[in-house]
Amino acid sequence: MKVKNTGRYIFILFLIFILWHIASAAVKSPLFPPPTAVFCNLREVFFSKIAVHAALSIYRIVAGLIISVLIGSILGLLMGFYHSVDRVLSPVIYFIYPIPKIALLPIVMILFGLGELSKITLIVIITVFQIVITMRDTVKNIPKETFYSLTSLGAGDIVVFKEIILPAAAPELLTAVRLGAGTAISVLFFTENFGTVQGIGYFIMDAWMRVNYIDMYSGILVLGGIGLILFSFVDALDRIFYRWKN
Amino acid sequence: MITVRNLEVFYKSSRGKFMALAGVNLDVEKGGIVAVIGPSGCGKSTLLYTLAGIIKEFKGEVLIDKTPIDPRKHRIGLVLQDYGLLPWKNVIENSLLGLRVKKKITKTDREYAEYLLSRMGLSGLFTRYPGELSGGQRQRVAIARAFILKPDILLMDEPLSALDAITREEMQDLFLDVWKGDSISTVFVTHSTEEAMYLGKKIAVMTGPPGRIVKTMDNPFFGAREIKDPGLYFSIKSKLKDLIKGRQK
Ligand SMILES: Nc1ncnc2c1ncn2[C@@H]1O[C@H](COP(=O)(O)OP(=O)(O)O)[C@@H](O)[C@H]1O
Ligand SMILES: [Mg+2]
Questions:
Q1: Domain count, chain B
Q2: pTM value?
């Protein structure tokens, strides 16, 4: 099944590249090079020029998501389980969630500097709300009868968290992580254009400035690849841990 | 032994207090089984949840073997109509859950669980998840889990109501068969008169809301599939139906 899946991915990617090739041949512009040219370039410069940028970007995304998941799920689960926590925190969350946090970038940079911390912080404050709300609603939607068998056994809150709340919330958490990963990648691309000379976002914009379109497309391709790897990783976790769902 | 005296339960909401039980009295002797029957909404589940220690605020007395109900002290086996099993645990894990909350699982426990599950016709399904079982199989696991706990009391809330007629009769027989081995004091809630007359040594009729037990009677047809005295059977049955509908004769 795993092999079949990989085959499917390769086949579909192959189709995309063929379409790209046809489109590029039709346009005939240096702004839109054919995939073959981009691949040749990637083979030459990936390790020498791109890999370090890509690695740094992956680090920022993964660190941001991990922190987001930790903070978001702890808050969300407590809000879902304890009505009193929800009553206090919900208004705060609802108020901050819709504020366009990209606009906070200057403040974040002043507070956390120009380095890694501010980039990761921005990813966290943008993705954490989705996770909080998903986790809270998941816990709230557990049928109350599910708790009854444990309550009638005299189980305390810790047992209830371990046996019901965490297992019920975990698969939904992966969904929230998928959404968060997509958001994180776009946010990262944006933040990497400010105050840094490292990261795949910087590499793409820099190539654009240098009018090196082949490099630019190579960077975009790598960015897509990063997304593909992240999503496949989450899917794999889903398949390994949540057999009961399927 | 279960003793319920003048039990009153209220549901509180923003719209005010709703009286769900108004002075319920009920006795289940040691090794007895009382079938509680009544129309939908009369308060049967509320009564059971109070006996299970899920509803903690009530007036009156609820005693198990003469001590006030406490789910941490007493072992309470609870079987619900649905949602009783945890979807992320397979059959064997689900069936041991009750025991695991109470103590450390030993090899003997595991063997007993496997024995009971097999007796319930579940051998070969131990590693399946609830989502991979039929409704009847799920309820077998839920019932097996309650017995594996070796409970002080057994509470069943319409556990067979969602099943088709044939599965249901099979399950009634199976339940009674296992139950007779252990004879745990049991309250079995149902809305079917046939089921009450097959599974109850005593039958308690409840009406409401607010819920009251209007009549408790001995049932000569307990465990009898073949009815020797159809005249008596149908007269009791129609009497039960009248009581449920609130008509007195
Ligand atoms: N959580 C609740 N809040 C308010 N009213 C409730 C709640 N649960 C049940 N009730 C009401 O209490 C009555 C008894 O309910 P229940 O015990 O579930 O009845 P039964 O199990 O006999 O069908 C019903 O009229 C129902 O509407
Ligand atoms: Mg009910």
A1: 2
A2: 0.84
